[in-house]
Write a structure and sequence with these properties.
alpha/beta; 9-stranded mixed sheet; 21% strand
């Protein structure tokens, strides 16, 4: 497996930060990531359909009418899973909008929480130097008066991010199912089981613009609340000073 010079140090930092979050009742740790886009159409998807007398899928998966991007938020305290499905490209705005929707729906269950610790990967939409991601996360933090700790897994090691196990479970569950429409995909996703419960599934209909950037002058206002660690500035960031 590929490594960078900081890989071992990043893993040590992740372990320390995760344990500290789990030991603190005022901190809620979650894991977020997106799954590879799913093609929707009359496709066999390399498996067998488990329904009685299933319809015939196409012999070759060469024709599809759209793709669906699954994004997941796993609550590591309760094991509750939320899935957001979208035809939009993966962007910083899409991810933070999902985070805001999730927190707005769940914050009432955690009145003691003043900090979100987020396990994530340094993908293109969430990397710590992505200007639009910086802006949106800081705005999220300020709006809810919520400190946020971004705990990045090292490059080439995304499989260690806890949400990845949910994607494996989803793929195993709907393997071979003919996902010929958005409704069908949402229905299958809502029936999967994770730690004895079914996920809450949302369909995001908004289409997000790619390539959005924040100019340096405007970004300076958000940098005030953006605090990278001294030893691993790309891989550990605290947002907010509440």
């Amino acid at each position: 497996m590929k490594k960078i010079p900081e890989t071992d140090a990043i893993f040590e930092q992740v372990a320390t930060a995760n344990q500290a979050a789990d030991d603190d009742p005022t901190v809620l740790r979650i894991s977020i990531d997106s799954k590879a886009k799913v093609k929707l159409g009359n496709l066999s998807r390399g498996g067998k359909d488990r329904r009685q007398a299933p319809p015939q899928a196409d012999d070759h998966d060469t024709q599809w009418h759209t793709t669906l991007l699954p994004f997941g938020i796993l609550n590591l305290r309760t094991d509750n899973l939320a899935l957001y499905m979208s035809e939009s490209p993966e962007t910083s705005d899409f991810i933070v909008d999902c985070l805001e929707h999730w927190w707005k729906s769940n914050q009432g269950n955690f009145p003691e929480v003043n900090t979100l610790a987020i396990n994530l990967d340094g993908g293109s939409a969430t990397r710590s130097n992505r200007t639009q991601f910086i802006k949106r996360i800081v705005e999220f933090s300020r709006h809810y008066q919520l400190q946020i700790r971004l705990i990045y897994y090292p490059p080439y090691h995304s499989k260690y991010n806890p949400i990845e196990r949910c994607w494996a479970a989803l793929e195993q569950f709907w393997n071979g199912a003919i996902l010929d429409s958005i409704d069908t995909a949402l229905r299958w996703a809502s029936k999967m089981s994770w730690k004895g419960s079914q996920p809450v599934v949302h369909h995001v209909t908004k289409l997000y613009q790619t390539g959005v950037k924040v100019d340096p002058e405007s970004l300076a206002d958000y940098r005030v609340d953006w605090h990278p660690s001294e030893s691993l500035p790309k891989w550990s960031v605290t947002v907010g000073s509440f």
